[in-house]
Amino acid sequence: MGRIRILSDLVANQIAAGEVVERPASVVKELLENSLDAQATRIRIEVEGGGRKLIRIVDNGHGMVRDDALLAFERHATSKLRNADDLLSIGTLGFRGEALPSIASVSRVQLETRVAEEVSGTLVEIAGGNILRVEDAGLPVGTTITLRDLFFNTPARRKFLKSEQTELSHIAALVTHYALVHPSKHFELHSSTQALLVAPAVGNSADRLFQIFGRETSNYMLPTTAELDFTRIGLPEPPPWQREEDYVAPDPGFLRLTGFVSKPELQKLNRNSIYVFVNQRLIRDKLILHALSEAYRNILPPTSYPVVLLYLEMPPQEVDVNVHPAKTEVRFRQPSFVHDFVRDSIRTTLTQARPAASFVNALQNGPHGVSSSLLLDVSPLPGPPDGVDAIPQPVFGATFRPTTFEDGHAEPLGVQGERASYFSNGSETAQWDIPHSAEPVKSPTFELAAPIVPPSPGRFAFSGHSIPVGYDSADAESNYESAAPQQADTLTALSTLKPLGQFRDSFILATNEEGLWIIDQHVAHERILFEKVLHERDTEQIQRQRLLMPLLVDLLPAQMITFAEIAEELERNGFEAEPFGPRTLAVKAAPVGLQGRELEHLLEEILAIPDRNRQTENSEARRRRIAASIACHAAIKINQPLELSKIEWLLDALGKTEHPTACPHGRPIALRYSHKDIQKAFQRI
């Protein structure tokens, strides 16, 4: 008898479940995408035990008839594809027909659905892939899927799940970001103890960002939008002799980019706060991540990352979504085109915005004083802290737990700094307002009350102006504009600064109508020289100086190998150097402003490429790295007194740079203490 056997459908479905269903959040993702494909406008998600015990998703989509409800649990049964050609232009979030049968094979599922044309709906109950019950039922239009006991028949998979709070946080992050990409739809996420998210429909993405994270968070973000057509690099057409008489050239379509990117002052310690959607599909793509890193290169430190909500739209023919079992990765037909478009669009946004760092925010938060990701922190806290300082700062990515008030609305914790809620053993135990004064916080009182069902449409409770939600979304844009600050903090006014002097021969103090400015003289000059070196290198106008005697620099063998790789780039940047023995380099000329020991340090720094960057460094990154090193070593140092004329030149030149926000290594250049902040400090307002 042969060794090869055909697996049963149950085993095949469980193997597919191992690819599609990695954790409870994977189940929520598949079912949520099905609801969105069904044109649902209201989606409610209920979770218990971090998704282990219960996952219920209720939507008001178009529903299914009885035959479709049964066929949906067959493997590779789908309503979204007809033939192989449809794989080349997938316009829906789901298309394989593997999600429902895979999920049903490792859990107990109950499906309730009805279409508008039918009088009654259909109820289907399945456990471990076996159909237990099928009957008619009186149901509303739409679909409700209830999933219990995930991985009950595969304990090996169940024991690898994380804690309930960790799994719940992944679900919360997933739902939150799908709510951000679909502002016209109503989303709710409830656990067994609290409402994690209630987001009624709003007018646009800016309103949704403001609705979920609040005014102070949205002030850290810069809106970005760009569009480019595929006319020159669209789909290839057949030659004229192979075209039919009625042949019509395909529409190349457009590549559109919208979303929000963070100001340089908001930095994260990892990439978990970068969310990219391609045709409204949440993905994790290395190409886009690299483009974002290049856009923020020389603006953020190498170990810090921005916060990004990026929405890309392109013709379905230009992107292949069928390259990953969980559909979290895609492949672009023109990867370099998409990469350069994203990089240039984000960098243009940062160049035009020229955001100014607030002196007060820099003191309170700092570049790394924010949470490490956008995942919602839903872990129960042991109790209220001893002081106000323990409360999370209201910045993007801070924890938020919607607190229900008497009017039935929810306010995210962490978005508004004036109200906080704390939970013990997974339930809400205390709620109080944080006073603005330095008085000690009084002990909270405990209250028990029946849960209040939030009405729809309703309004989120914000500390400032509220924005309409639900059916009032027509006026949302005008109210959002009134709630936003009248004028963004930018560095456009740097050229109007009047210098007052130096502080400890390291920081320049200057003033204008906007307030008091503090400029780091070293990093300011470093930014000026960095852009000057790049410009002169591109135009082949680099200024170099010949040394009276060649400078001999001893290098390690690995550094000599690196020199051979980048010798041409060094020459374009003003160096004239050649090997002088097996481990010695003779430098005959160098860029203006570098000499002696400083020149030796510069060469050692340029030739010491970290191993992790050696394989990934391209020509553009190398060019910018060398320019940044030259600028750093040639710039004015700290503890160096400057004449008034030199300070005036420095401020004027800084105002003319493209990115006066940060030095090439990501450190902030200028901090502004605004007139309003000064008035507040002196209690005049």
Automatic annotation (TrEMBL):
Domain MutL C-terminal dimerisation: 499-642
CDD domains to which the protein is assigned, alphabetical: HATPase_MutL-MLH-PMS-like, MutL_Trans
Stored Pfam families: DNA_mis_repair, HATPase_c_3, MutL_C
Keyword DNA damage: yes
InterPro entries in the record: DNA_mismatch_repair_CS, DNA_mismatch_repair_MutL, DNA_mismatch_S5_2-like, HATPase_C_sf, MutL/Mlh/PMS, MutL/Mlh/Pms-like, MutL_C, MutL_C_dimsub
Single GO MF descriptor: mismatched DNA binding
Superkingdom of this protein's organism: Bacteria
Task performed by this protein: This protein is involved in the repair of mismatches in DNA. It is required for dam-dependent methyl-directed DNA mismatch repair. May act as a 'molecular matchmaker', a protein that promotes the formation of a stable complex between two or more DNA-binding proteins in an ATP-dependent manner without itself being part of a final effector complex.
Protein name per Swiss-Prot or TrEMBL: DNA mismatch repair protein MutL
Organism in which the protein naturally occurs: Tunturiibacter gelidiferens
